[in-house]
């Protein structure tokens, strides 16, 4: 059964059968904004362009590389991005991920000790105006879910209104094992570059 993550929760990557996850997908599902018309008559749908990204850091918290819509694969192939989704679900929640980042721990450079996931609203649309947004960590591929390991509801988290960037969570290595810290905190940044700087300064 999947764990419903809470902000700040730290978890081991251990499956229900006792083995440890070596290859995970982090999927983000979100919806377009529906606005009611004048006097409440009719409605319009506004596409939402959220961008999921992944930043790799060394033990001394130096940035190694960033995987995002403009760089879909890390140098060693350990991290892969499914590609940019510019709209979100425009016809209601379809239950599928709009963007997926896959992570194979075995292919990471030995120097990598932190793998951080962040979310940015590319057009600057307020997180508080997005009807739903969720993160799930699962074993499988972008098109096939074998087992959902953890879920995280970011749309209903406190304090997201007025923000366009957030830190989703950080995988970190301790004593040779990878664990996950569900951060779920909005930041004051306006773009990916500064969000990555905030991660290095505050969340590793």
Automatic annotation (TrEMBL):
Q: Keywords in alphabetical order, please.
A: Tellurium resistance
Which Pfam families does this entry report, sorted A to Z? TerD
**Domain (TerD) ranges:** 1-194
Q: What domain of life is recorded for the organism?
A: Bacteria
Q: Name one GO biological process term.
A: response to tellurium ion
For this entry, the protein name equals TerD family protein
Q: Which organism is it from?
A: Mucilaginibacter mali
Q: What are the top taxonomic ranks of the organism?
A: Bacteria, Pseudomonadati, Bacteroidota, Sphingobacteriia, Sphingobacteriales
């Amino acid at each position: 059964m999947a764990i419903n993550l809470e902000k700040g929760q730290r978890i081991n990557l251990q499956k229900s059968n006792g083995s440890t996850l070596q290859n995970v997908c982090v999927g983000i599902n979100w919806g377009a904004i529906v606005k009611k018309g004048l006097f409440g008559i009719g409605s319009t749908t506004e596409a939402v362009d959220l961008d999921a990204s992944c930043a790799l850091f060394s033990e001394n918290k130096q940035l190694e590389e960033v995987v995002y819509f403009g760089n879909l694969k890390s140098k060693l192939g350990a991290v892969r991005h499914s590609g940019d989704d510019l709209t979100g679900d425009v016809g209601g929640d379809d239950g599928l991920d709009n963007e997926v980042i896959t992570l194979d721990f075995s292919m990471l450079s030995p120097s990598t000790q932190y793998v951080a996931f962040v979310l940015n609203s590319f057009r600057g649309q307020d997180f508080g105006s997005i009807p739903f947004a969720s993160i799930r960590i699962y074993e499988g591929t972008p098109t096939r879910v074998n087992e959902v390991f953890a879920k995280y509801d970011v749309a209903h988290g406190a304090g997201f209104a007025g923000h366009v960037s957030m830190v989703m969570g950080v995988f970190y290595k301790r004593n040779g094992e990878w664990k996950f810290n569900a951060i779920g905190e909005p930041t004051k940044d306006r773009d990916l570059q500064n969000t990555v700087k905030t991660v290095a300064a505050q969340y590793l």
